[in-house]
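Tutorial sheet, problem 5. The two components below are modelled jointly, 900 residues in total.
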Amino acid sequence: MAGGRPITVLNVAEKPSVAKSVATILSRNQGLRVREGRSRYNKIFEFNYAIRGQSCNMLVTSVTGHLMELEFEERYRKWHSCDPVELFNAPVRKLVPEDKMDIKRTLEQEARRCQWLVLWLDCDREGENIAFEVVEVCTTVNRHLNIKRAHFSALIERDIHEAVQNLVQPNKYFADAVDARQEIDLRIGASFTRFQTMLLKDAFNIDSVGDDRNVVLSYGPCQFPTLGFVVERYWEIQSHEPEEFWTINCSHNSGDGISTFSWTRGNLFDYTCAVVLYEMCVEESTATVVNVRRQETLKYPPHPLNTIELEKRASRYFRMSSEHTMKVAEDLYQAGFISYPRTETDCFSQRTDLHGIVQEQQEHQIWGAYAQRLLDPGSGLWRNPSGGGHDDKAHPPIHPTKFSAGERGWSQDHHPAVGAVTTVEIDIAGELFSTSGRMILARNYLDVYRFESWGGSTIPTYASGQQFVPTTLTLDSGVTRPPPLLSEADLLSCMDKEGIGTDATMHDHIKKLLDRFYATKDANTRFTPTNLGEALVMGYDDMGYKLWKPHLRALMEHEMKAVSEGIKRKDEVLATCLQQMKSCFLDARFNKQKLFEAMEVFFERSNGSGGDENHAVGEVVQRCRLCQDSDMVLKRNRDGNYMVGCLGFPQCRNVVWLPGSIAEAAVTSNRCNSCTPGPVYLIQFKFRQLEIPPNYNPNHLGCIGGCDDILRQLTEICGTGSRISARGRGTSSSSVQRGNTAQSVCVFCQQLDHSSNDCPSQVVGSRSARHRQTGESSFSCSNCGTPCVLRTANTTNNRGRKFYKCQSQECNFFAWEDSVDSVNGGNSAAQSNIRSSASAASNTNPGRNTGRGRGWGQGQGQGQIAATFVSATGEPISDRRCFVCGDPSHFANVCPNRGA
DNA sequence: GCAAGGTC
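Model answer (structure tokens):
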């Protein structure tokens, strides 16, 4: 070929900027001519060049991403033109859309006079697919074209010259995989979207979506699993039962500093057990150092950067949204500062010239010196970065491709930072406690990677066998908390882990949730599903279909990979996938009632019968007495169990779980005559007969306001439908605290300090059953006769002491529980009903028997101990307080002032 | 009016 006449070569890039870069690099900016094409964005560059000795007249132009779109044939385009199920088989075709026709014409025009076509599309599956679109357009007008593919990963001279001198063939398998993906996405998306939109849009008043004429309840194999992540986390939070736990903390002031030792048992959920162990420690409180360990630890630098990690780190360190990050990265790529920013790869190949990359950085004023040290063989600092195990075989990890003196926050090659951790273990009465401190010995890569911190903390010196008396020894309590709502970084992690979307599209799917009114994002970038989003997921979940789970996409992705590797044929994958999805579609349509039911939980039927105008029928039960800001509504969780929850969730977490034996429940327009503050709407319950005792009527018109003994009894007998939290469970369960404590607020008296099971008002003040069969006595206000509630004092002098308070707002009656006990002969309901485990524990302690007892203080037989112990078996008196109002009697998750 | 994926 060498020495022949010049040939004309048409080079096509994926976007105009790449065409320009390729042309500039190959022409070395000598004799480069530019002319307009038919599309105003896609210029044509011309210059002379020699490929392996063959002189070429090079034309370089571009497309803008995909040139073609897949669409249904005309007669299936209109929404009502066919049954949506037909979309699984309806003929489809690939067409150049109208707005790409100019580009198509330019390609045709230039291809007619060329001998070669060189494809400079991005080196990934989509790029390969676009390459075949370009081939189709060009070969239609010139079937003699010689087709070549250029493989490059960065717009730098070395890569571009190397690519053009080593042209290869395009990979049809890659393109086939994308064809299959496109067809499956189109058929599933269109069929399900039309189905659920036409089914639900007009059937309900979907108030959250504004102008509902344009509402589309879309379904997509990426957007729905993304919504699924949001809803699943929301459900997890909603079903979390706050659970109290106890732990022993020990501190020691040695004179050289204070060490805080934590209990190696961690948190105990059994109060009695914790008290017994605490008591042992207090009685035999000398601590013995049993182990002092000093260990060198290493903190490794992060793996080389891929797109998701770039987005997550930018979100974490710079609070940049994923969308903005990719925009900036694209700019840097186009300016030649970094390699291609859309890559899954997080390990460098052997071919990458890492030394060359670092050499470029030697002049940098911040990390230049570090780069020089890395390159100095005498320093012994060089280490090839360890990979994260991902390689898309198309692009290297994102790395700098040329020097910049400006602020750029990444480095490539790092040594781990070195630290020394000292761990001290002590033994008190057989219980182990430990503490640790860290000293950083060598910062190494942390010197240049300034975003990661590795704090040091010092502790005094201890020797094995040494004994000391703890300065404080406290039994502290806490409450398990639900996980937070998903943040944008969390969501990206979920999507990445499950393979939802591509690096370039993940942020689009997240945005789609907002656009479709499926979810909202708050100021902290945390996502909450809307009623609409939750209802749709719930509907499919109730059908038993995991269409909102990532499995379907994962399966498809797996199949696509097989196609791209030539292991499976496109046609067979398409046939199997679509067959499965079609039967799933038919099943979903058969079970559409589930979708209706789920929507009914949240929305009124649009042709509904109206009902009581004062409240939304079928929903509102009462005003939330906790936040006093939102309504409490009857809802079902995803397991079908009923609860009455505050609409202010997640800011307000007030929830009343109802018996697990309910088959059906509906809020009526009847108001309770006795519960205040009203109105409290009665709920018509239908219980599953086999799950309740025979003497109860399965049909019951009940009230959650506090007056309904039958409801309380069935709750106790049947338990609630609240999901048991997976976290923080699994220790012993002998204590009553581990009973049915799903409510943040007691069902019966709306107090925060006990569960409905322990509610004194049910014994003391129940209207319908003043005297229970057990013979326990009640207590009513001696002024007005209204039933009293039992509360816990929080004043300095009486912290933890219980008192009765009249419920009537006009009456100021008040009496200490312990003084009432003595009047009533010490057999009060309150005494027997509250915290029985604590009572048992406190029996070891002479003194008032008020629930949890009062613990061990100075002067209670502990005189041999010189240190001051904080009494701890009463109400929580550690430094932990509600961070909202500072009250130590509760935590912020149940704070009545929250959101005030 | 529908998907996801390129890109402007």
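Marking note: Residues 106 and 754 of chain A are 76 Å apart (CA to CA). Full credit if you identified this.
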